[in-house]
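ZP: hey, is the inosinic acid complex queued? I don't see it on the tracker
AM: it wasn't, my bad. submitting now with these inputs:
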Amino acid sequence: MKMNKLVMATNNANKLREVREILSPLGIKVLSQQEAGANCDPDENGADFSDNAMIKAKAVYEATGLPVIADDSGLCVDALGGRPGVHSARYAPKGQECAKLLGELEGVADEKRTARFRCCIALLTDTERRTFEGKCEGRIGYEERGTNGFGYDPVFMVGDRTMAELSADEKNAISHRGAALRELYTYLKESSGE
Ligand code: IMP
Protein backbone atom coordinates (compact mmCIF):
# COMPACT_ATOMS: atom_id res chain seq x y z
CA MET A 1 0.00 0.00 0.00
CA LYS A 2 1.61 3.25 -1.14
CA MET A 3 0.36 6.39 0.54
CA ASN A 4 1.62 9.93 0.42
CA LYS A 5 -0.70 11.49 2.94
CA LEU A 6 -1.89 10.47 6.41
CA VAL A 7 -4.05 12.27 8.92
CA MET A 8 -2.99 11.97 12.53
CA ALA A 9 -6.04 12.03 14.80
CA THR A 10 -4.66 14.72 17.08
CA ASN A 11 -3.98 18.45 17.26
CA ASN A 12 -1.24 17.94 19.88
CA ALA A 13 1.80 19.76 18.43
CA ASN A 14 4.30 17.60 20.37
CA LYS A 15 2.83 14.35 19.08
CA LEU A 16 2.67 15.70 15.52
CA ARG A 17 6.31 16.72 15.63
CA GLU A 18 7.38 13.28 16.90
CA VAL A 19 5.34 11.51 14.23
CA ARG A 20 6.54 13.77 11.40
CA GLU A 21 10.18 13.25 12.39
CA ILE A 22 9.88 9.47 12.32
CA LEU A 23 7.74 9.10 9.18
CA SER A 24 9.43 11.81 7.08
CA PRO A 25 11.95 9.39 5.43
CA LEU A 26 8.96 7.62 3.82
CA GLY A 27 7.86 10.83 2.11
CA ILE A 28 4.48 10.72 3.84
CA LYS A 29 2.93 14.08 4.64
CA VAL A 30 1.27 13.98 8.07
CA LEU A 31 -1.69 16.32 8.53
CA SER A 32 -3.21 17.20 11.88
CA GLN A 33 -6.91 16.46 12.14
CA GLN A 34 -7.56 20.20 12.06
CA GLU A 35 -5.58 20.57 8.81
CA ALA A 36 -7.66 17.73 7.38
CA GLY A 37 -10.85 19.55 8.36
CA ALA A 38 -11.94 17.02 10.97
CA ASN A 39 -13.16 18.36 14.25
CA CYS A 40 -13.48 15.13 16.21
CA ASP A 41 -13.37 14.55 19.91
CA PRO A 42 -14.90 11.12 20.46
CA ASP A 43 -15.41 9.62 23.92
CA GLU A 44 -12.31 7.60 24.75
CA ASN A 45 -14.21 4.98 26.67
CA GLY A 46 -12.34 1.88 25.49
CA ALA A 47 -11.01 -0.72 27.93
CA ASP A 48 -7.41 -0.39 26.81
CA PHE A 49 -5.00 1.72 24.75
CA SER A 50 -5.71 -0.14 21.52
CA ASP A 51 -9.51 0.25 21.83
CA ASN A 52 -9.08 3.99 22.41
CA ALA A 53 -6.64 4.42 19.52
CA MET A 54 -9.12 2.71 17.18
CA ILE A 55 -12.04 4.85 18.47
CA LYS A 56 -10.05 8.02 17.65
CA ALA A 57 -8.92 6.70 14.25
CA LYS A 58 -12.46 5.71 13.28
CA ALA A 59 -13.91 9.15 14.09
CA VAL A 60 -11.35 10.93 11.89
CA TYR A 61 -11.57 8.32 9.13
CA GLU A 62 -15.34 8.76 8.98
CA ALA A 63 -14.92 12.55 8.80
CA THR A 64 -12.19 12.63 6.14
CA GLY A 65 -12.09 9.33 4.22
CA LEU A 66 -8.27 9.65 4.28
CA PRO A 67 -5.82 7.12 5.76
CA VAL A 68 -5.63 7.84 9.49
CA ILE A 69 -3.31 7.05 12.34
CA ALA A 70 -4.35 7.64 15.94
CA ASP A 71 -2.41 7.03 19.08
CA ASP A 72 -3.46 6.40 22.61
CA SER A 73 -0.87 6.43 25.30
CA GLY A 74 -0.41 6.76 28.98
CA LEU A 75 1.65 6.08 32.05
CA CYS A 76 1.26 2.87 34.07
CA VAL A 77 2.74 3.08 37.58
CA ASP A 78 3.30 -0.27 39.32
CA ALA A 79 2.82 1.08 42.86
CA LEU A 80 -0.60 2.38 41.77
CA GLY A 81 -1.71 -0.92 40.24
CA GLY A 82 -1.13 0.40 36.71
CA ARG A 83 -2.84 3.77 37.19
CA PRO A 84 -3.32 6.29 35.68
CA GLY A 85 -3.13 4.05 32.56
CA VAL A 86 -5.89 4.80 30.04
CA HIS A 87 -6.97 7.68 32.29
CA SER A 88 -3.58 9.46 32.09
CA ALA A 89 -4.92 12.47 30.20
CA ARG A 90 -7.71 13.00 32.75
CA TYR A 91 -5.75 12.18 35.92
CA ALA A 92 -5.25 15.83 36.91
CA PRO A 93 -5.73 19.27 35.36
CA LYS A 94 -3.12 19.94 32.65
CA GLY A 95 0.18 20.97 34.22
CA GLN A 96 -0.65 19.42 37.58
CA GLU A 97 -0.27 15.73 36.70
CA CYS A 98 3.34 15.49 37.87
CA ALA A 99 2.68 17.14 41.24
CA LYS A 100 -0.32 14.88 41.86
CA LEU A 101 1.66 11.77 40.98
CA LEU A 102 4.58 12.76 43.22
CA GLY A 103 2.05 13.28 46.03
CA GLU A 104 0.52 9.83 45.54
CA LEU A 105 3.99 8.25 45.61
CA GLU A 106 5.19 10.04 48.73
CA GLY A 107 6.96 7.54 50.97
CA VAL A 108 7.12 4.87 48.24
CA ALA A 109 10.61 3.33 48.17
CA ASP A 110 12.96 3.56 45.18
CA GLU A 111 12.56 -0.04 44.04
CA LYS A 112 8.76 0.27 44.04
CA ARG A 113 8.68 3.38 41.83
CA THR A 114 8.87 1.43 38.56
CA ALA A 115 6.59 2.58 35.74
CA ARG A 116 6.21 2.44 31.99
CA PHE A 117 4.81 4.59 29.26
CA ARG A 118 2.69 2.62 26.81
CA CYS A 119 1.54 3.64 23.37
CA CYS A 120 -0.74 2.04 20.84
CA ILE A 121 -1.05 3.40 17.30
CA ALA A 122 -4.01 2.45 15.15
CA LEU A 123 -3.82 2.59 11.35
CA LEU A 124 -7.14 2.77 9.54
CA THR A 125 -7.53 3.02 5.76
CA ASP A 126 -10.07 1.72 3.26
CA THR A 127 -8.22 -1.62 3.26
CA GLU A 128 -6.34 -1.74 6.59
CA ARG A 129 -7.14 -1.92 10.26
CA ARG A 130 -4.09 -2.58 12.43
CA THR A 131 -2.47 -1.59 15.70
CA PHE A 132 1.20 -1.17 16.65
CA GLU A 133 2.50 -1.06 20.22
CA GLY A 134 5.47 0.33 22.09
CA LYS A 135 6.58 0.79 25.67
CA CYS A 136 9.28 2.56 27.62
CA GLU A 137 10.38 1.35 31.05
CA GLY A 138 11.45 3.80 33.76
CA ARG A 139 10.92 5.01 37.31
CA ILE A 140 9.07 7.89 38.89
CA GLY A 141 11.54 10.34 40.45
CA TYR A 142 11.12 12.59 43.49
CA GLU A 143 10.91 16.03 41.86
CA GLU A 144 10.10 17.61 38.50
CA ARG A 145 13.16 18.15 36.32
CA GLY A 146 13.61 19.40 32.75
CA THR A 147 11.55 21.51 30.39
CA ASN A 148 11.30 19.43 27.21
CA GLY A 149 8.42 17.14 26.31
CA PHE A 150 5.03 17.24 28.00
CA GLY A 151 2.74 15.50 30.47
CA TYR A 152 4.59 13.23 32.89
CA ASP A 153 8.01 13.70 31.26
CA PRO A 154 9.46 15.82 34.12
CA VAL A 155 9.02 12.98 36.66
CA PHE A 156 9.67 9.95 34.43
CA MET A 157 13.27 8.83 34.93
CA VAL A 158 15.17 6.89 32.31
CA GLY A 159 18.52 6.14 33.94
CA ASP A 160 19.52 9.29 35.83
CA ARG A 161 17.69 11.82 33.64
CA THR A 162 14.02 12.60 33.31
CA MET A 163 12.33 12.34 29.93
CA ALA A 164 11.96 16.15 30.05
CA GLU A 165 15.77 16.46 30.19
CA LEU A 166 16.21 14.54 26.93
CA SER A 167 16.38 16.19 23.51
CA ALA A 168 13.62 15.37 21.03
CA ASP A 169 15.95 12.96 19.20
CA GLU A 170 16.98 11.21 22.43
CA LYS A 171 13.33 10.84 23.44
CA ASN A 172 12.27 9.50 20.02
CA ALA A 173 15.00 6.86 20.23
CA ILE A 174 13.67 5.34 23.46
CA SER A 175 10.06 6.44 23.85
CA HIS A 176 6.94 4.28 23.75
CA ARG A 177 5.58 6.41 20.88
CA GLY A 178 8.92 6.15 19.04
CA ALA A 179 8.83 2.35 19.42
CA ALA A 180 5.22 2.07 18.18
CA LEU A 181 5.96 4.46 15.32
CA ARG A 182 8.99 2.45 14.24
CA GLU A 183 6.72 -0.62 14.06
CA LEU A 184 4.32 1.41 11.91
CA TYR A 185 7.23 2.75 9.83
CA THR A 186 8.51 -0.77 9.14
CA TYR A 187 5.04 -1.95 8.19
CA LEU A 188 4.39 0.99 5.84
CA LYS A 189 7.84 0.66 4.28
CA GLU A 190 7.46 -3.07 3.68
CA SER A 191 3.91 -2.84 2.39
CA SER A 192 4.79 -0.03 -0.02
CA GLY A 193 7.26 -2.45 -1.61
CA GLU A 194 10.30 -0.18 -1.08
P1 IMP B 1 -3.74 10.63 24.92
O1 IMP B 1 -3.52 11.91 24.19
O2 IMP B 1 -5.16 10.25 25.09
O3 IMP B 1 -2.90 9.51 24.36
O4 IMP B 1 -3.29 10.95 26.38
C1 IMP B 1 -2.22 10.35 26.97
C2 IMP B 1 -1.77 11.11 28.20
O5 IMP B 1 -0.71 10.33 28.73
C3 IMP B 1 -1.18 12.49 27.89
O6 IMP B 1 -2.10 13.52 28.09
C4 IMP B 1 -0.05 12.57 28.89
O7 IMP B 1 -0.55 13.02 30.12
C5 IMP B 1 0.38 11.13 29.04
N1 IMP B 1 1.48 10.85 28.09
C6 IMP B 1 1.43 10.12 26.95
N2 IMP B 1 2.62 10.09 26.31
C7 IMP B 1 3.44 10.84 27.06
C8 IMP B 1 4.81 11.22 26.91
O8 IMP B 1 5.51 10.90 25.94
N3 IMP B 1 5.29 12.00 27.89
C9 IMP B 1 4.56 12.40 28.95
N4 IMP B 1 3.30 12.11 29.14
C10 IMP B 1 2.72 11.32 28.20
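AM: back. The mean pLDDT is 94.
ZP: great, adding it to the tracker
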